[in-house]
Design goal:
CATH topology of the largest domain: Rossmann fold
Helix content: 25-40%
Bound molecules: phosphoric acid mono(formamide)ester
Number of strands: 9
Structural class: alpha/beta
Oligomer: single chain
CATH class of the largest domain: Alpha Beta
CATH architecture of the largest domain: 3-Layer(aba) Sandwich
Strand content: 5-15%
């Protein structure tokens, strides 16, 4: 009897919105078939809604020990290789945590000097070797399109395991865009959703793969207007603008950050990507990026309902004093990365519907809600 009461209390704690998300998720989920995750180009609106519902369900189920134990049993027979040969804190650790949530074992290569690549083994052979031992390869690489190339190599092999792009050169960071969209959907869930919002991208937009991926993915929403706020030398690439043109998305390019702050529903701040300077002659070091910062002095220009995002790591572009402002959601983004990546792995390995059923079951003992963690 006591057990039933506890369950009832837990379910009572679930917010109306969370309840709706989970039930909508389980009723409409058609188990989108996902294999490789290479580019945001792959994802439509329905997929974004499905993966967001799944990420929320995983987050809620994870709160109870019974739920966390159940999730950790789902993929305990799978192994993941984290092949990250370009520096990463969040993407690497959130994928590792996502694997742990679902019970997957992980191994990693983070430096080619510790693998047989140093003996002259090709990248293709290296990754084929990984596919002999692991069920998924999650990778970050400094070369654009590298994940797509590896997916093609594996597709032509006898062990075509899924490849997940955790950031490739300056071109794509699709799982960052998924977590960014999830954060936007969550931030605006009581404010009409993401449709019709104005999103401002700020900083080094030329070399920022997170901006390129998110700007493209936002075309899946209706009526979204985009601002690209950057010094002329670091303005967004023409290929992204052509993409927006093809999708009929209105946008504005400007160098004037102060004029955009009062009209934005979300500002997406980015740092100077000067790790690419050397290959480009170091000329970007002369640019004054200080003008593209949120500080106690200019935050008053931002609307009360707006949100401040950042893929991180940050430098000077968001003062630490801003961290406690209720509009700052970049630490929420970091945590959302773990939930959305767990959801992606669950979809790839075909356990998404099982998770949604666990979350939606009447009197589910796997759900414990309350303050977001
Ligand atoms: N946002 C992001 O990709 O962070 P890391 O480089 O730390 O993985």
């Amino acid at each position: 009897m006591l057990r039933i009461d506890k369950r009832q209390k837990r379910n009572h704690c679930r917010s109306g919105n969370e309840d709706k998300i989970i039930r909508k998720g389980v009723s409409s989920f058609m188990a989108s078939r996902v294999f490789h995750c290479l580019s945001t180009e792959q994802y439509d609106r329905k997929f974004l809604e499905e993966i967001s519902a799944l990420a929320t369900t995983i987050r809620l189920i994870s709160k109870s020990k019974a739920g966390a134990d159940r999730l950790a049993s789902l993929l305990s027979h799978k192994r993941a290789m984290l092949y990250f040969v370009q520096p990463s804190t969040r993407t690497f650790l959130s994928f590792q945590s996502a694997c742990q949530i679902l019970g997957m074992k992980t191994a990693d290569v983070r430096d080619t000097s510790t693998s047989s690549e140093v003996k002259g083994e090709s990248e293709a052979d290296t990754v084929r070797t990984f596919s002999s031992y692991y069920d998924v390869i999650i990778m970050r690489h400094y070369k654009a399109d590298f994940a797509s190339y590896i997916a093609q190599v594996l597709n032509n092999s006898n062990r075509p395991v899924p490849v997940i792009n955790g950031g490739s050169g300056k071109d794509q960071h699709p799982t960052q865009a998924l977590l960014d969209v999830y954060t936007l959907m969550h931030s605006f869930q009581d404010k009409g959703g993401v449709d019709g919002k104005t999103i401002a991208f700020v900083g080094d937009l030329l070399r920022g793969r997170t901006v390129r991926s998110l700007a493209s993915l936002l075309t899946r929403f209706t009526g979204v207007k985009q601002y690209f706020v950057a010094p002329r030398e670091l303005q967004i690439g023409a290929d992204i603008l052509s993409y927006l043109d093809r999708h009929g998305v209105p946008y504005t390019l400007t160098e004037d950050f102060r004029s955009v702050l009062p009209v934005a529903d979300a500002v997406y701040m980015t740092r100077l990507q000067d790790e690419w300077d050397e290959r480009e002659g170091g000329e970007k070091k002369t640019i004054n990026i200080q003008d593209y910062s949120i500080t106690p002095e200019n935050i008053g220009l931002l609307q009360p309902h707006a949100v401040i995002m950042h893929p991180l790591p940050r430098r000077q572009e968001i003062s630490p004093e801003i961290d406690n402002d209720p509009r700052a959601v970049y630490w929420r983004q970091v945590r959302n990365g773990m939930w959305i990546r767990a959801a992606l792995l669950a979809m790839i390995f075909g356990v998404a519907e099982e998770i949604l059923r666990l979350g939606a079951a009447e009197g589910s003992s796997f759900l414990e809600t309350g303050k977001e963690k």
